[in-house]
Structures are given as C-alpha cells and as structure tokens.
C-alpha cells in the first residue's frame, strides 16, 4: 500500500513539472516588437519606450522599430518623444504598430509578423543604466546656446565647472574619481569619444543621454558619460 502511495505521489509530481515550467517561463522575458510612425507615416526615431521603470527603456531606431523583453497584456506603454509623453495601453496585444497623431489620438494594432520574428526583429532592447534622456527640443527651450549650460538646468545631478580661457567647461555626474583621479564625465559625440563639448550648440543636437553608469565604455566611463547625438549624425 505504501509503495502504491509513493508511486501515486511520483506520478502527480511528474504531472506538475510541465505546469511549473510553464509558470517559470511566463516570468521570463519574452519578445515584444513594435513600430512607431508619425501622422504622416514617417518613422519616429529615437523615441523612448518603457513600461514601469523610466530608467529601463528602449529607443526606436531609424526605422521606428523598438523591442521590449517582457510586456504583459495589461501593461501600458509610455512613449516619450519630442518632449511629449504618450500613454498607450497594450490591451492584450503581443506586438504593436503605432501611428501617433497627438497625445490623445493614435492608432494601435497588433501584427502576427512582428510576433513571429521574436528577438531577431529588434536586437537592441531595454537599457538598464541609470540616466536621463533629453531631446534637442528640450535643450532649445532652455534659451541657452551652450550645450553644457542647457544640460545643467535640466539634469539636477549634473555639476558644471567653467574652464579657463579657450577651454570648455567640465561636467561631473557622479561626484567620484576614476582610476586616473579625474571626476570629469566622459564625452561621446555621434559615437566618437571627444575631449570636451566646447562649441556644441543646443540647436545642432538631436538628443543627449546622461549615463551615470557608463560601463559600456570600460574604465573610461567610470565617472559616467554624456552621450550626444547631433542632428547631422542622427540623419546619417
């Protein structure tokens, strides 16, 4: 009798294994693909999309495509673009093609093709580094032509120290020193590391990312990074 009961427990345990695996898989990241266009059907580039954590976001590429790793049917997508914030309920969709008109008017439909493409459709997904995203429009609205001056008014943790004659100002994000003893942030413009942001006008900037954790640049990013994308570079 005891042997029979033990066998019965084993059968029940084996039967529950697939259910446990399904439950575990449901908590793992699954691909959620999307495309965003404006009212004229043009791709929306460099829009920031997140679900709950604004510091964990995806950016649309030059074709307006974005990817997230885990979106639930009841989630709401938050889309920040040109200084505006759009909120779009997922409503059970497993992918989304989104056409923006304004903050309250948009069309959103699902697409089986986007679902079937999985992670191969958009390989760059959420960024998890703590930081800030500032659009060129936000910079221009500060009324300041110098990029670092404009940023100081928009990023509370950013401290700017003026340089000497003919020198650019220096930016400090984390108030800590890197291996070379400097507290100055790393500067990257259109993918190229530069010595300073001296002479860059806010009117030439598409957007800026302030990265408190810039380990993607190795030891050079120990003090964080100010990553600038100019309008010229973004168009390329």
Please tell me about this protein's structure.
- By secondary structure, the chain is of the alpha+beta class.
- The N and C termini lie far apart (about 75 Å).
- The protein has two domains: about 90 residues, Immunoglobulin-like (Sandwich), CATH 2.60.40; about 100 residues, TonB-dependent receptor, plug domain (Ferric Hydroxamate Uptake Protein, Chain A, domain 1).
- The protein is about 20% helix and about 30% strand.
- The protein has five helices and 15 strands.
- The N terminus is likely disordered.
Placed side by side, the strands forming the largest sheet appear as 9-14-15-12-13
Helix content: 10-25%
Ranges with pLDDT <50 over ≥5 residues?
3-27
- CATH architecture of the largest domain, by name, is Beta Complex
Order of helices and strands: HEEEEEEEEHEHHEEEEEEH
Q: What is the residue-averaged pLDDT?
A: 78
How would you sum up the major sheet? 5 strands, mixed
Please count the beta strands (DSSP E, at least 2 residues each): 15
Q: Report the CATH C-level class of the largest domain.
A: Mainly Beta
């Amino acid at each position: 009798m005891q042997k029979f009961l033990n066998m019965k427990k084993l059968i029940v345990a084996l039967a529950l294994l697939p259910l446990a695996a399904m439950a575990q898989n449901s908590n793992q990241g699954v691909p959620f693909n999307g495309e965003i266009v404006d009212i004229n059907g043009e791709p929306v580039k460099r829009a920031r999309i997140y679900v709950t954590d604004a510091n964990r976001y995806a950016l649309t590429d030059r074709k307006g495509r974005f990817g997230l790793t885990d979106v639930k049917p009841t989630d709401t997508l938050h889309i920040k673009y040109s200084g505006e914030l759009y909120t779009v309920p997922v409503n059970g969709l497993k992918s989304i093609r989104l056409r923006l008109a304004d903050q309250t008017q948009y069309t959103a439909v699902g697409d089986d093709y986007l679902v079937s493409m999985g992670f191969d459709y958009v390989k760059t997904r959420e960024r998890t580094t703590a930081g800030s995203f500032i659009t060129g429009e936000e910079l221009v609205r500060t009324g300041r032509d110098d990029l670092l001056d404009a940023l100081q008014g928009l990023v509370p943790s950013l401290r700017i120290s003026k340089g000497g004659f003919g020198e650019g100002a220096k930016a400090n994000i984390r108030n800590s020193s890197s291996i070379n003893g400097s507290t100055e942030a790393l500067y990257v413009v259109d993918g190229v590391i530069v010595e300073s942001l001296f002479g860059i006008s806010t009117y030439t900037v598409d957007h800026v990312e302030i990265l408190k954790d810039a380990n993607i640049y190795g030891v050079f990013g120990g003090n964080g990074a100010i990553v600038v994308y100019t309008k010229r570079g973004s168009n390329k």
